[in-house]
Structures are given as structure tokens and as C-alpha cells.
Write a structure and sequence with these properties.
It is built from 18 helices and no strands. The chain is mostly helical. Helix 13 runs antiparallel to helix 14. It is elongated. The relative contact order is 0.04.
């Protein structure tokens, strides 16, 4: 056995910490941190990160002595401060966490990112106003983490029915990050304007979504609010032109994922015939078999349209295996099919 406190022993404890963290065994992780404190005489930032969740489950006395043993370096001390603040926040005392979020020396660090995020979630539950929105916009401009940014924005704006300008500013700040939430953010910004009768403002944001989607080879979100706002501002001809250009771009792309997304939007707007024109442009025989199966499965979800297309002709690329006999139940077992199992 390794001597407690030796470099080899410390390395072993760090491996145990990583294992407990991966398995969600937080009580055990806290005990390892306490052992490191006792035998190594300190705990460093990486160890605190791995075992940090365990501090929330540990007795206050254990937590206090472990965090007091944080190594004397800025990173270790800041992580320990964050864990202390987290323990206070669980008791609804947000002051220590807010202090970390205001610390200019921590800006750009993981501790500042998480502290700022936690404060935003707290503010979102307290009838936030312009000051909270300013903090959100600053956070979104400073940190580009798609999921955290989306959650913070959605929670902050969820009750802003009477504050369209704040809601628009928040969603546009998220849209400015780009990435996977951009078109949802642009749609939410436009929707906030539309719901308050500001059709021109709404249409401007919806048009931006159309332009950026064309540039990114993506799809904007199109529903009745988009159609109404754009028709109100651009006239019927302007709306029809934007929609037609979108349909033609998707058809030309021959991209099944775009085609499926367009099909869903067309169904929402009662334009199933136009979805058919896009789907007919696809070439199933040239698709990767797995992608062909996904496309086929999506068509099954739209049974009337699926029947109109004559889906019995939809075949897998390469082997050309006819999919027409497959049913939704049969799709579940496709991994056992001798010609397709190697794709899964």
C-alpha cells in the first residue's frame, strides 16, 4: 500500500475522486477530499472541482475543514470560495455568490462564469427588471456557452409578457452568439414584438432569420406568427416571395434534414402540397442508409403526406433495399437486418 500523503498516494486519491465523480458517489468523494486534507495537508483546485458536488452533501464541519485547507493559490482559493457560496445559496443566501459574480479579478474564469450563471437563475425567480436584463446581456456577451445561455435567457424572460423591449434585447443578445440556438432566439425576439402589435419590428427580425438561415444553409423557424407579421409588413406578395425562396433553396439542397424540417413547417401552415414538392426532390438511393431510415421514419409521422408521396419507392442507398414493407414497429428492429446492421 502507498504511504498516506506520498505523491503516489495522492495520485491514487485523485483517481478515486474522478471515479466517484463519474459515478455520482458524492459522499465518498467528500470523504476522499477530507483524507487529502488530512494527509497531504491541502486540497488543490482540480480535486475540489472533482469532489465539489460532494461538499453539498457533506456535514458542515467536514465541508468547512476541507475548504479551509484549499491550497494557497488563486485558483484553489476561488474554487473553495465558490463552493462556500454554493452552500450558502442552497439556504437562499445569494450574497456570497453575487460577490463572486462582481469580482473583476475573476472575470473569464470558470468560477466567475458559474457564479454569474447562478445569480442569473436566482434573479429570474424574483420578478427581474432592467437591471437583471443588463446582467444577462453582459453574461451573454462575455460567455458563449449555448446551453447555459439559452437556459438563463429562457428563465429570465419567461414572465416578461409586458416587457417586450427587455425580452427582445435578451433574445437578440443570445442570437448574437450564433450557434444552435440562434434561430430560436431570433424567433423569440420577433414573437415578443408580434405579440405586442409591433408587426414591423417582428417582421424585421423574421426577415433577418430568413437571411441568416440562407447564409448558414439552415432553416429559420416559420409559423403563423411569422406569416402574419411578414404579410402585414411586406404584403402578401412579399411573404410569398420569402416562402418560395425558402422552399426552392431547400429543394435544391437535397438535404433530408432540411426537407424534413420544411415539411413540418409546411404542415403547420397548411401547405402540405409544397412539402411534397421538396420531398420529391430528394434522391433516396444516394443517401447513407442510416439517414434514409431517419427520413423514412419522419415520413411515417406524417401519414397523409407519406401516402401522397408513395413512400413504397423510398429505398436505401447502396444496396437499394426496398423499405416499403417496413412498419414503425419493424423499424425498431432494423439493427438486426443483415444488410444494415453494420451501420448501427
Amino acid at each position: 500500500a502507498e504511504t498516506a500523503g506520498s505523491e503516489a498516494w495522492i495520485a491514487l486519491q485523485q483517481q478515486r475522486l474522478a471515479g466517484f465523480a463519474a459515478l455520482g458517489q458524492h459522499v465518498e468523494a467528500a470523504q476522499v477530499l477530507d483524507a487529502l486534507r488530512e494527509h497531504a495537508g491541502r486540497v488543490v483546485a482540480g480535486e475540489l472541482v472533482l469532489g465539489g458536488t460532494g461538499m453539498g452533501y457533506a456535514e458542515a464541519s467536514l465541508r468547512d475543514r476541507v475548504l479551509a485547507a484549499a491550497a494557497d493559490d488563486p485558483l484553489s482559493r476561488s474554487v473553495a470560495d465558490y463552493l462556500r457560496a454554493g452552500a450558502q445559496a442552497r439556504k437562499s443566501a445569494i450574497g456570497p455568490m453575487r460577490k463572486l459574480s462582481k469580482d473583476a479579478d475573476l472575470v473569464g474564469t470558470p468560477v466567475h462564469f458559474m457564479a454569474s450563471y447562478r445569480v442569473l437563475l436566482h434573479e429570474a425567480q424574483r420578478r427581474p427588471g432592467a437591471a437583471a436584463n443588463k446582467e444577462l446581456v453582459t453574461f451573454l456577451g462575455r460567455y458563449r456557452h449555448p446551453e447555459f445561455g439559452y437556459v438563463a435567457t429562457a428563465m429570465m424572460t419567461s414572465d416578461w409578457w409586458s416587457k417586450p423591449s427587455l425580452k427582445i434585447e435578451a433574445w437578440e443578445a443570445l442570437a448574437a452568439q450564433g450557434g444552435r440556438w440562434k434561430f430560436i432566439a431570433l424567433h423569440e425576439a420577433g414573437l415578443a414584438a408580434y405579440q405586442h402589435g409591433k408587426n414591423a419590428d417582428a417582421a424585421a427580425r423574421f426577415e433577418r432569420a430568413f437571411r441568416e438561415a440562407a447564409r448558414d444553409d439552415a432553416l429559420p423557424i416559420v409559423d403563423w406568427s411569422v406569416q402574419y407579421a411578414m404579410t402585414s409588413t411586406l404584403g402578401e406578395a412579399g411573404w410569398q416571395l420569402a416562402w418560395t425562396r425558402l422552399r426552392e433553396r431547400v429543394a435544391k439542397s437535397k438535404d433530408p434534414s432540411l426537407a424534413i424540417g420544411f415539411m413540418q413547417m409546411a404542415q403547420t401552415l397548411g401547405r402540405g402540397d409544397e412539402a411534397q414538392r421538396v420531398l420529391e426532390a430528394l434522391d433516396p438511393e444516394s443517401m447513407d442508409p442510416q439517414l434514409a431510415l431517419v427520413t423514412f421514419d419522419a415520413l411515417l409521422a406524417y401519414a397523409p403526406l407519406f401516402e401522397e408521396l408513395g413512400a413504397g419507392t423510398f429505398t436505401l442507398g447502396g444496396g437499394g433495399a426496398d423499405l416499403s414493407p417496413l412498419t414503425a414497429d419493424g423499424m425498431l428492429g432494423i439493427g438486426l437486418h443483415p444488410d444494415t446492421s453494420h451501420y448501427f
